[in-house]
Amino acid sequence: MTDERACGTAGVAVVMGADELPVVMPPDLRARLGELTGREVRAIPVDDGLGLLAGPVGLGGVDILVTGWGCPPLTKAVLETASRLRAVIHAAGSVKQLVTEAVWERRIVVSSAAEANAGPVADFTLAAIGLAAKGALSAAAAYADGGRLPAFRDRQGGDGRTVGVLGASRIGRRVIAGLRAATAGYRVLLYDPYATDEEAARLGTERVDRLADLCRASDIVTVHAPGTPDTYRLLDAEHLALIPDGGTVINTARGSIVDTESLERECRSGRLSAWLDVTDPEPLKKGHTLFRLPNVLVTPHIAGAQGSEGRRLGTYAVEEAGRWVRGEPLLGAVERESLERSA
Predict the structure, then answer these.
(1) Can you name the CATH fold of 11-112+307-339?
(2) Of 265, 271, 301, 323, which residue is the catalytic one?
(3) Is 312 among the catalytic positions?
(4) Does domain 117-298 have CATH number 3.40.50.720?
(5) What is the pLDDT of residues 255-270, one digit of tens each?
């Protein structure tokens, strides 16, 4: 153990939303956190949005900060109250809204449980792909309207369908693996400007050079790119128009990647369907057209760890804190250089 990690009386603070805290980091996990780090663990539920400087909380004496949904950004002002802070372990996915330049300037180690959160998102996406391949939304709407079962020959299925994966992120890679293992016999295409042909081959997919080629060839397009300036409305009107009639767009990544107005027009015409767990804006205004269309399902950003799944995020963070104290490599380490093009 290095000197800076053997901090004597330093402690651990667990800071996340009041609703998330008992689910993600319940008492038994906090006890385990104390055992692994050899430190006193203090839980700080955030329920007023005022930040870490509100009231007598402060982070003096804290060297490990475990964060989650609801934790305010770690600004320079916040960090001034945390002179001993050396590691931030995020018990959730993206750290973009949490980590500021002040964190990197202080050379504070950052880790994320994004890998633990990736599993539920990939499972959700694969379920949506399977249902989309069967035309579940349109079939359910027709069934409700006429009460008749469609003829077998008219039903859709996964066999022979092409799924275009936009982004070889950790979730995108899991989705590709799931599609390759599925019995439906999907053809899987990948568009990711950072992926090589060799990487695509290892994943068992075909890489295409242009997003237009992916859209033109795919019955289902599933989005797994990070939300960055480069990906803002990447799936725009032009690209959506290339998806074949009867195609489906699935987005469990970031709402900003898809042009909402253009997608609404395509779905309103009945040409495309959509399964959206994220939107832009988020949430959509009450009564938005996408909520009312029979060929669209909008869910409230629930693809990631929810309910009892939240505990896996806490478990990951606890084990990660233990690794940091022992001087071992962090499995979820976040690097400043790669954060800009990550989720």
Answers:
(1) Rossmann fold (3.40.50)
(2) 301
(3) no
(4) yes
(5) 999 999 999 999 999 9
